[in-house]
Amino acid sequence: MKTPNLTGGYPMYGLLFLLLMMTTTACSVNNQYHKGKLVWKDNFNDKKHFNTRYWSKIPRGTADWNRHMSDLDECYDMRNGKLILRGILNNEKVQDTARFLTGGIYTKDKISFGYGRWEIRAKLNAAKGAWPAFWLLAQDGKWPEAGEVDIMERLNHDSIAYQTVHSYYTHRLNIKDNPKHGSTGKIDPGAFNTYAVELHPDKLVFFINNQKTFSYPRIKTDKEGQFPFTDYKYYLLLDMQLGGSWVGNVDPAQLPVEMEIDWVKFYSFKN
């Protein structure tokens, strides 16, 4: 006895296969990313120091994110092919009166790019008040007019990372939901995760572990400064930060805290 075909021309196993393929294709489209051409990377393989052709230590400033920046060796290390950036309690450095000291480096005036994909693979150790970040600023432009792209920010012991776009439009005009200017994505707190952003002429696209988290599009608007990212090249900042109005107070008993950076890469989308 033959089994009647109840699927309108497809045997049941064929229909199941078709549905599986459609689901897989939909997922692939949703998480699609562009590699482009690899034009720059740093694997941090030097045993003694990061490459000063690419990087400089971030100087101290007055904002929450850089008010504890230090050039002291205790805040930096190279270990097993990884860059270590630390946040430490300052108990004995009489030449520096800051209670906490943090390490951070950037490619300002050395490496900057336009359209393409930035990737960073890193492990973020946790502490109350810890605020590690990977982000982009314009090489030749003022903030916030030239924009800011936060590839990753992690707070305290969170199992999520924040990814955010800032500009004159979002900061000065305070338009943060048209379009939505940020999102979060899950991370594995005890492991290495890969964070990425793609800069396109019409959008920014964010990823965690090659899974798309959100995109920020260029839109038609009469408001100023909504999408400045086609006008500048951007340099990369990698920094450990401690304390501030967003992350909250630091627990000194949980210091020192480290982040371990395995590599950074940039893929160009230009031919």
What is the helical fraction, as a range of percent?
under 10%
What's the mean pLDDT score?
Answer: 91
In the predicted model, the low-confidence regions spanning at least 5 consecutive residues are 1-20, 23-29
How far apart are the termini? 61 Å
CATH class categorisation: Mainly Beta
Major sheet size, sense and barrel closure = 9 strands, antiparallel
Question: According to CATH, what is the topology?
Answer: Jelly Rolls
Oligomeric state of this protein: single chain
Radius of gyration: 22 Å
Helix tally equals 2
Class from helix and strand fractions: mainly beta
Q: Please indicate the percent range of residues in DSSP E strands (runs of 2 or more).
A: 35-45%
> What's the SSE pattern?
HEEEEEEEEEEHEEEEEE
Q: Give the name of the CATH architecture.
A: Sandwich
How many strands in all?
16
Total number of distinct structural domains = 1
Shape summary: globular
Keywords:
transmembrane; Jelly Rolls; 2 helices; single chain; globular; 271 residues; Beta-glucanase-like; ConA-like_dom_sf; seven-stranded antiparallel β-sheet; disordered N terminus; transmembrane helix; nine-stranded antiparallel β-sheet; mainly beta
How is this structure best described in words?
- The protein is mainly beta and 271 residues long.
- The protein has one domain: Jelly Rolls (Sandwich).
- It has two helices and 16 strands.
- The strands form two sheets. Strands 1, 3, 4, 5, 7, 12, 13, 14 and 16 form a nine-stranded antiparallel sheet that branches. Strands 2-6-15-8-9-10-11 form a seven-stranded antiparallel sheet.
- The radius of gyration is 22 Å and the shape is globular.
- The N and C termini lie far apart (61 Å).
